[in-house]
């Protein structure tokens, strides 16, 4: 009840002002207490793995934090503030702070940013921060073209890298690699010096080519550049099974063109005449016509190149792999098969390869991890006993007036020069055989300890046979 009295009114006004003053103090104290609340969060990827070294900033301020090795961060923030989270390889994410104080935030991988990450001698770096010359080939690019060896995959894909293939023989068609013409490059597969053609392309995650001073960490061996191959590894999640199949056909890129039998007979007639003999010493004009008409089985027109080589040869590749794991154990296992036929019509030049790879990573505790990599490869080469250079020499001197085949298949046909028979040189029944079986086993055991101050120590044992 209010009374219209000046003294009482003044007293009431003083009371109201006092109440408002204390109310403002309480609201300010509450606001201050609220603004100083600590927000705790954990950043993980799509496989629930922690993301260390990510940046967490409050939008439009300079206040921020960095996630630790376990992906955890702490920051003073108020309700309604927006946290801007960024990390190399992941999309930038914004999270509005609510009433709760604990958050688990999942970041999505960014394909565009991942393209900027390359493997170098001292780890993985963002491409824009590297001053040296480094080129990278991703896994999806490696299986676009069917090849028998991994070395062929880099042809035309990396600037400054020169590949040279000296033979197309199945199983021996690997190319030599040199960078900028300085000689053969150093090849490292998961940190071990290993021939590049012993790795199945389906097992490769990335290939990095170090061309200049960026390779100096490997010492004098890297004087001609380094090719770093990183194989695929397991990821947290349910087992994922992938099957890759490819069937392709190959053909000789270039072959000799031979004269027809009647043209050959005409040239022999001219040679006899120029040599001081008679024009009809070896072949008469009637013989030339018989060769040309093709009605007489004794007068053939044999294309020896066609008799020896197929026009197309098949190549089949299969690969089955499985990957998965938990926070403690991750695995990747791959089984591959390649079957490549040779270009000989005899069917006695073939190559087959079987390969198995298993990469296992075990997290023993927060600081200690253990890894085992095993790779097995078996190569079968079946070929006739005659070396290819001798066979090609026979082919050069084979005359088109003689048939490449006889009615008696147990006998080799005469080609017109000595005892040479190009087709017989490609057949094991006549030339003997040179069958070769090679097996390779590579093992790697790794023990790694992570210290609290950001450094790690690693011990690696490897075996190769």
Index terms:
single chain; alpha+beta; Ferric Hydroxamate Uptake Protein, Chain A, domain 1; 18% helix; seven-stranded antiparallel β-sheet; Immunoglobulin-like; 465 residues
Folded structure, characterized:
The chain has 465 residues and is an alpha+beta fold. Among the domains are: 33 residues; 73 residues, Carboxypeptidase-like, regulatory domain (Immunoglobulin-like, Sandwich), CATH 2.60.40; 119 residues, Ferric Hydroxamate Uptake Protein, Chain A, domain 1. Helix content is 18%, strand content 36%. The chain contains 9 helices and 23 strands. The protein has a 7-stranded antiparallel sheet with strand order 17-18-19-20-21-22-23, with no helix packed on it. It has a 5-stranded mixed sheet with strand order 10-15-16-13-14. Strands 3-2-5-6 form a 4-stranded antiparallel sheet, with no helix packed on it. Helix 4 packs antiparallel against helix 5. The longest helix has 30 residues. The radius of gyration is 37 Å and the shape is elongated. About 3% of the residues have low confidence.
